[in-house]
Specification:
Layout lengths: L4 H6 L12 E6 L2 H10 L3 E4 L12 H11 L5 E7 H6 L13 E5 L9 H14 L3 E7 L10 H10 L4 E5 L8 H4 L2 H13 L3 E4 L8 H4 L6 E4 L14 H17 L2
Parallel strand pairs: 1-2, 1-8, 2-3, 3-4, 4-5, 5-6, 6-7, 7-8
């Protein structure tokens, strides 16, 4: 399975609802959680450390252990923190996790930095040179996070033909993406990115109750963590909660075909 199958399928065309299935991405912190997510029906596994923030960088050794066990089963991605951390690195080298071709860097703190656009484009090219796809990350609560306007993120990402566009929330203690942005605005952002050939990913404190609303949007992947943990997003991931979320997603998707 290629990591870029969704983006390639959509490039230059709109996928009909009849043939389009929304995938479930589950963020995990270790191999035990990864196996539980797969058993629960996750279509995509994302590596992160939730105790270190929204896109908390995964521990390299733990990531390598997961890759060794999971490579070739489902697409894999990894969170590497915020883009400002990359900008602050004099050598500007992206951490590389062999076997992971999709990486995420958030844009919190870049709202007042007029150079973020050129720097992000340079970062994208650095990643592409190593056959790594950098996800274009927009925060629904972009004002509070001092991040760029999501529409601007889409515009910049389109310049290099980015394959992935993610909407997430920066403050996991506050509201969800669906509560921060009006449904019409959220839907329009996802539709715009999709029409530009990007695989669209929606995250940000999504709950199982949100599924009926989000399946009506032009979204390819739903990304969750807290909704499938026993307590909050920093707690232990539960295989049965993953299965429940996945089954609800399938039922809701079938209901709108």
């Amino acid at each position: 399975m290629t990591n870029f199958s969704l983006g390639q399928q959509r490039k230059g065309s709109i996928v009909s609802e009849e043939h389009r299935a929304i995938q479930l991405l589950v963020s995990v912190r270790n191999l035990t959680e990864a196996k539980a997510a797969l058993e629960g029906g996750a279509d995509w596994i994302d590596f992160k450390e939730p105790n270190h923030g929204t896109l908390g960088p995964v521990n390299f050794d733990i990531a390598q252990e997961m890759v060794s066990s999971l490579e070739g089963t489902v697409p894999l991605s990894a969170a590497l923190g915020e883009f400002v951390d990359w900008q602050a690195n004099p050598r500007r080298q992206l951490p590389k996790i062999p076997g992971v071709q999709v990486i995420k860097l958030g844009l919190a703190g870049c709202g007042d930095d007029h150079s973020w656009e050129d720097n992000w484009l340079a970062c994208y090219e650095f990643a592409a040179a190593d056959c790594i796809e950098l996800v274009a990350v927009a925060y629904a609560d972009w004002r509070e996070a001092n991040a760029p306007d999501p529409w601007r993120v889409i515009e910049i990402a389109s310049r290099v033909g980015a394959k992935f566009f993610l909407i997430d929330t920066h403050d996991k203690r506050a509201r969800s993406s669906l509560q921060v942005l009006e449904a019409q605005v959220l839907s329009a952002l996802l539709e715009s990115a999709g029409q530009l050939g990007m695989t669209t990913v929606l995250a940000g404190k999504l709950r199982i109750e949100d599924i009926p609303a989000v399946v009506k949007m032009d979204v390819d992947i739903l990304a969750v963590r807290g909704a499938v943990c026993r307590t909050d997003r920093t707690g232990e991931l539960d295989r049965m909660l993953v299965k429940e979320f996945r089954d609800s997603l399938r039922r809701a998707a079938r209901s709108i075909v």
